[in-house]
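With this grant's support, we have settled on a layout for protein records. An illustrative entry appears below exactly as we store it:
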Amino acid sequence: MMRFFCCLVGFLVAAAFANTAQAARITPGKAGLCRVTLEGEIAPGDVDRLRAAPMDMPIWWSNFEDGSWAAICLDSPGGSLSSGLELARYVLDNRIGTIIDDGAECLSACALIFMFGTAHQHESVALTNRRLHVGGRLGFHQPDLTLDRTRDYSVDDVEAAFDLAIEATLNFLALAARPRPDTPRPFVDGDLLEAMLQHKGQDFFEIDTVNKAGRWDIALFGFTPPHLTDEGMVYACQNMTGWSARLEQDQMPYQPDGYSHRIDAVQGQDGFVDGQRFRVDFSGMMTYACEVGLRGSYQGSPQAVLCGYRENLSAQVGPDTCLQGSGAPGRWPVIPAAALLPASTTLKDLKAARGTGETARVLSDNACMSSTGRARVINVQNFTSLRQVMSHDAQRLAELPLGSEYQVARAPSGDFRHPRHADCKALCQKAEFGSPYDSAALKSCIETDWMWFQIQTPSGQSGYASARYLDY
């Protein structure tokens, strides 16, 4: 730990004397994936630029309890560690998810920001929300001390830099050790910190296997998820009972010989979609004890869940009651798709062998969003009204004159009382993803006052105006 502390101090001293880097770019995000994108080298002032960027819920988002729509895509080689810590703290405090998309890289200080992605869940506990495309790159390394030998530094300069470095280093260690909202584990585990110290310069410790992603709870996407099979259950049992404690080691390969491992179905089980769950045993070892089943979900397809225990690691996954043959699967953890694969599977091979899976399209202008964050009053003789809520029957707060322009959120709101609310919302989802949609039907939604923008006037009044009377 002392070595780690000294390395960070050295890095921050170097950063204190470095020339000011060009700031990262904060741009619109990618449809269905993230609301904003951070690109380029991280520099002082980036947190203010992120704070000013619109982070609004897309109009088509259906689950109001799930805040995972609030996410930032990262594509940066790193940069200022102190500025990276400011960004990491902002991301954590505001429950913003972090995503590395296909072809993007997130290295050095950017990788630390990535580790603090979370999602707000309203009345439920927030969730860790950090996602890596199998075609993306995530790399950590030990900070280096690199001073400009052509410059002369006074004693006061060096002392001030060390004070700044020590403060920032302690802030990082405190932030890294903070427990995640959904587990007692810290945001940055000690073995990941140790791995960082073993890599210097351009030699990065990369998250390039299923094993590394699973150990540090980094969700993978961009591949076609495997089906739940006997082989998948065997690997999921080993992976999930191991990852809670360490990187998986010496994994037993799947051998359908009826001796190495055995899977038995138990019928008549309440809480499971098909009324059965599976016991997974490893013959002759008595090390693994797992049970697997399919649990219904509030939205979407059934979820594969697992409960288990590994004796040699004293590692428990899920509640104790599941191994006693009782208890519903409500508290069993969901099996990540990658956990159904051998831990040694590389992300490169996963992308090549299992297709592209989930992809993202570049956000494009459409009738369901404001590309500029501004809206101008049109289609009226004199003015349109600013209403207290999304209804022409609501209290009028102000008059918005023809031609006047206002700042608005990029994503408007939809009136859930509208008779075609569900259809209109589905049209907007297709529009944002770039899929074919009925433009005449969407125009009808707008012209019948389904879509409204929240506006704040220069005098401070805040209310809603129908998109029917706005050019955005």
Notes: Residues 155-177 form the longest helix (23 residues). The CA atoms of residues 369 and 411 lie 5 Å apart. Residues 1-20, 355-364 have pLDDT under 50 and may be disordered. DSSP finds eleven helices and 25 strands in the chain.
